[in-house]
């Protein structure tokens, strides 16, 4: 590249220096080429539930936001085991489902901006660990502008946005934290399969994955 561009700086390039190659000549994001982390956000009225999960570390952070700081979150470790067993019974391959024995931390807040700041710190610390190339998979009801304004570190990560679909139930007055937590875990257990399909489509269309 340096010889072709006649530039000393090899950290940037012009589009004219890119050359099209087929997948037969060069693979694109082969299996396990990138680690992925998972961010989920869903808001209904004054209630929000967010989760940031690092599959490689089997560690998840859940944040519930409401007008009052009331913790009615379920035992996420037990719920995850139950939902994962159900997902395994439906999956064609065990590798399509995240690993077992995840640990979860729960925080209850009354301000969504405070949750964004906590997620910002977690992502920054994760980047500082320099665990190698990775991407962040996002499923969220907020648009990208709102997410990136609330969590500026997203601009430092390759992000892949997947559709949430219409599976989430409305937040009920009494049991919303448990129901929303179950929905998040189900989405998380499905995301490797959805990511794989998005990658297949990206290869077929010769378009980059993510944003």
Automatic annotation (TrEMBL):
EC assignment: 2.7.7.7
**Claim: Manganese is one of the keywords in the record:** no
Looking at the UniProt record for this protein, which Gene Ontology cellular component terms does it annotate, in alphabetical order? Answer: epsilon DNA polymerase complex
Q: What protein name does the entry list?
A: DNA polymerase epsilon catalytic subunit
Catalytic activity, per the record? DNA(n) + a 2'-deoxyribonucleoside 5'-triphosphate = DNA(n+1) + diphosphate
Is the 4Fe-4S keyword given for this protein? yes
The lineage is: Eukaryota, Metazoa, Ecdysozoa, Arthropoda, Crustacea
Under the GO molecular function aspect, what terms does this record hold?
Answer: 4 iron, 4 sulfur cluster binding; DNA binding; DNA-directed DNA polymerase activity; single-stranded DNA 3'-5' DNA exonuclease activity; zinc ion binding
Q: Which UniProt keywords apply?
A: 4Fe-4S, DNA replication, DNA-binding, DNA-directed DNA polymerase, Iron, Iron-sulfur, Metal-binding, Nucleotidyltransferase, Nucleus, Transferase, Zinc, Zinc-finger
Q: Where in the cell is it found?
A: Nucleus
Q: Where is this protein primarily located?
A: nucleus
Which organism encodes this protein? Cyprideis torosa
């Amino acid at each position: 590249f340096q010889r072709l561009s006649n530039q000393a700086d090899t950290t940037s390039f012009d589009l004219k220096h890119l050359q099209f190659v087929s997948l037969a000549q060069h693979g694109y994001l082969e299996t396990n080429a990138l680690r992925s982390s998972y961010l989920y956000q869903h808001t209904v009225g004054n209630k929000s539930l967010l989760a940031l999960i690092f599959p490689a570390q089997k560690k998840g952070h859940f944040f519930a936001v409401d007008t009052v700081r009331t913790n009615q979150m379920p035992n996420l470790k037990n719920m995850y085991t139950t939902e994962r067993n159900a997902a395994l019974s439906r999956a064609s391959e065990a590798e399509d489902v995240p690993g077992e024995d995840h640990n979860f931390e729960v925080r209850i807040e009354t301000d969504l901006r405070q949750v964004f700041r906590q997620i910002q710190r977690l992502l920054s610390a994760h980047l500082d660990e320099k665990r190698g190339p990775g991407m962040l998979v996002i499923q969220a009801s907020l648009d990208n502008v709102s997410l990136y304004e609330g969590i500026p570190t997203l601009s430092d990560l390759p992000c892949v946005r997947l559709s949430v679909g219409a599976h989430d139930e409305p937040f009920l007055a009494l049991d919303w934290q448990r129901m929303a937590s179950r929905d998040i875990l189900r989405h998380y257990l499905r995301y490797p399969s959805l990511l794989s399909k998005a990658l297949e489509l990206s290869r077929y269309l010769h378009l980059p994955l993510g944003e």
